[in-house]
Specification:
Number of helices: 0
Structural class: mainly beta
Distance between the termini: 40 Å
Number of strands: 11
Radius of gyration: 14 Å
Length: about 120
């Protein structure tokens, strides 16, 4: 099993910044990539950013140039630096670990709320 613990969410004004963290523990060798998803009220969960073990990254178009995903392998932690936040970024943000065993074996964190409001 792999356990994921997210932190760093909160309330921020438009234009502000937040950094989310996702600490992984357990059978880390099962993971080949980590990602951040988000789900706003009444909407489907969507991929925000992903980073592979090799460091390759990918972002959804709406966050390109504003969000940065990174990882600290020594700490088994993935970060999502979010700058120039907008009200439409308001959502619950989830960390996901992609398993070599396929989608049915992926792991999810519990989620952290990000609210962008004045």
């Amino acid at each position: 099993q792999v356990q994921l613990v997210e932190s760093g969410g909160g309330l921020v004004q438009p234009g502000g910044s937040l950094r989310l963290s996702c600490a992984a523990s357990g059978r880390i060798f099962r993971i080949y990539a980590m990602g951040w998803y988000r789900q706003a009220p009444g909407k489907q969960r969507e991929l925000v950013a992903v980073i592979t073990n090799g460091g390759s990254t990918n972002y959804t178009d709406s966050v390109k140039g504003r969000f940065t995903i990174s990882r600290d392998n020594a700490k088994n932690t993935v970060y999502l630096q979010m700058n120039s936040l907008k009200s439409e970024d308001t959502a619950v943000y989830y960390c996901k670990a992609y398993s070599w065993g396929g989608p049915d074996n992926d792991y999810w964190g519990q989620g952290t709320q990000v609210t962008v409001s004045s």
